[in-house]
Design a protein that fits this description.
The chain is α/β, with parallel strands linked by helices. The protein contains 10 helices and 14 strands. Bound molecules: zinc ion.
């Protein structure tokens, strides 16, 4: 892309797992708003595995209208595999490896992954995503743990990848060049963070929501339906979880700003709350497919403006 040297930049790629576009639109996000405008985009998959498989091949969520801009310049795609069909328009980085990680590693970047939701647990023998990274740091609950209310409906702090921004920044800055990927589970059910703790009320709502997720139905003989007020409470938890992530990203970006990395932040899919008769994700519905996306170039000036 003429005039902007994207190919040799360090990279920060962040996925806000399950974050809905409408939640991002209502949230107060000083860090992400400074990075670039909130873009309404369509995810390449309806759940974590296919969406990340596509993202790791350069197929980011696609803007519903218009095109991406980097430093004020339109760009048809930030990354494009040399194996993909030419799509027209300027491309930031054409890569030749089978994944972004393979390509950046071959070009001398330290490639670091961190997460996340259980698809990223490297101890899960069926989990292919973390194996795409030469180095992956997983902070979430073990994928082999029983999935019941005692293990799922919990307060979370250290199990959130963005609780570890200082350590992740150190790893990046110790390398001459870096590619950092972070899958953020804070916006994934149960939506708990230090900014959105459990209460007796929201724990009951989450218990019912998990049962509806598991059954994928708006109504079940065993579960009381969620009212609009209940859904409002749960979406408020996701909004506060996103605002917590924004604060942590501010700390991460401040540490990395001197390196002026290319940054992309997006959701991998959204979550349905009964709008089409189902709950959760993994099925096609506009609230599952429509996701937020931001991109831009970090700079010390940008971070000083955000955190002043
Ligand atoms: Zn996901």
């Amino acid at each position: 892309m003429a005039g902007i040297d994207l190919a040799d930049r360090d990279v920060v790629l962040v996925t806000l797992d399950s974050c809905r576009y409408d939640v991002a639109k209502r949230a107060r996000l000083p860090t992400l708003s400074a990075l670039g405008p909130l873009i309404r985009a369509e995810a390449p998959g309806t759940y974590t595995l296919p969406s990340h498989a596509a993202i790791f091949n350069g197929f980011l969520p696609r803007p519903v209208f218009g095109s991406l801009t980097i430093a004020g310049r339109p760009v048809g795609a930030i990354w494009r595999s040399a194996a993909a069909r030419p799509s027209g328009g300027p491309v930031g980085v054409v890569f030749t490896g089978s994944t972004l990680m393979e390509d950046y590693a071959a070009r001398g970047h330290r490639v670091i992954g961190a997460g996340g939701v259980t698809f990223f647990d490297p101890s899960g023998t069926g989990n292919s995503l973390p194996r795409l990274f030469p180095e992956f740091h997983y902070f979430g609950r073990p994928s082999s743990a029983p999935a019941d209310s005692t293990t799922r409906i919990v307060d979370r702090a250290g199990s959130l990848a963005l609780a570890h921004v200082e350590a992740l920044a150190e790893k990046c800055l110790s390398a001459d060049r870096f590619f950092l990927f972070v899958n953020c589970p804070s916006t994934h059910i149960p939506y708990t963070t230090p900014n959105s703790p459990l209460t007796d009320h929201n724990a009951d709502l989450l218990d019912r929501l998990y049962q509806l997720h598991d059954g994928k139905r708006a109504r079940s003989a065993q579960v009381s339906p969620l009212s609009r007020k209940d859904v409002h409470v749960l979406l408020g938890m996701q909004r506060r979880a996103l605002e917590w992530a924004d604060g942590q990203l501010g700390r991460l970006f401040t540490r990395l700003a001197e390196r002026r990395p290319l940054v992309v932040v997006c959701a991998d899919h959204g979550d349905e709350f009964g709008e089409g008769g189902r709950y959760g994700h993994g099925h096609p519905h506009p609230v599952v497919s429509t996701v937020p996306l931001w991109c831009g170039l970090l700079s010390p000036d940008l971070c000083r403006g955000v955190l002043a």
